[in-house]
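COMPLEX REQUEST
Ligand: pyridoxal-5'-phosphate
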Amino acid sequence: MNLNDVKALDAQYFMNTFGDRGELYFTHGRGTKLYGNDGREYTDFFAGIAVNSLGYGHPAFLDAVKAQMDRLIHISNYYYNEPQTLLSERLAKATGIGRAFFGNSGGEANECAVKLARKYFKARNKRRYEVISLINSFHGRTLAMTAATGQPHYQEPYDPLPAGFVNVPAGDIAALEDAITPHTAAVMLETIQCEGGVIELGGDYLRQVAELCRLNGLLFIVDEVQTGVGRTGKLFSFEHFGIEPDILTTAKALGGGIPIGAALAREEVASAFEPGDHGSTFGGNPLACAAGLAVLNILENEGLVARCAETGEAFKAKLMKLKQTHAAVTDVRGRGLMLGVQFVPDVHAKDVVKSLARAGFIAGAAGMNTLRLAPPFTISTGEVDGLCAALDTILSEA
Ligand SMILES: *Cc1c(COP(=O)(O)O)cnc(C)c1O
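STATUS: Structure written out below.
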């Protein structure tokens, strides 16, 4: 179909939640390249919102997923499930956080985390249910996660929101301490607020939060839906900071594009869930778990997490150079291959994303003025140089 036909059908039949979706659609991908209906090749610096860390069409990934498809795609969670047990074991051994539950998305992983935190205190006969999260955070689109997401423009259309969520400013440990009440159950945060503009919270603050949780008997929930599975240069970003989450959530990159989300919790916390307390029809089905195992195997076999750290460091240094030569760039943030370029208020990230697409590069926006770069881990130095050169030209013309 040509682009105008697709646009017309979309405008007539799809709910208008994503607005203007650009001037092309993609037909296929290979490696770090995406191919448009316009016949052009694009280098991908967005990976489907930090999902496609292995790029497109990775042979070992496709082999593993196709083999599982041939055997068994789905079975109910009333029966044991070999790929699910293997992925649970794998994640526990990689993180030191003992037990897993699988859903189908980041939002569901976070719902599981909050339900588990509430159940943990209920099992101890304590009325502690409130979750403190941060302003400018992003935790998902379910109604409860909208309450946890500290961004009024996501919250206002859905008033009244579920009770039991408090949002405090990020980086302000006194504000967090003030928000703790006898009903507080947990603190939930991202180590880098990716959706919120690639804002790093920093090791000092994260360690203070962990200590505050410990002193007050609160559970510490770290949302690694976007930072997890290698993107920051460690398998999970908490490893950079010497902090230990009680509950960790992850999703985006875990399934290599097959939907899966996971909540991991340490044994004492996880054991608060009893049979019937939580569940999911699709969550952790054999196909999704085989995909998760394949992703983790490939990251390990190909040394891709270390490569992500190396490429990310060089990439960030090159973006810093653009900051020196362009007044429009006020900051470069992030870690590994989760990078953000902050522009002055009158340079809109969406316009830069459009200009980059015209130059053959796919990138994303975070908020009004931040360009978000989250390429596959296999992105090459030459491709990084190409993106930086294109950005240089665009900013010179701006
Ligand atoms: C994307 C994201 C979510 C929500 O994930 P979905 O799969 O869209 O439900 C939650 N938390 C963070 C940090 C995210 O980046």
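REMARKS: The chain is about 40% helix and 20% strand. The longest strand covers residues 329-335.
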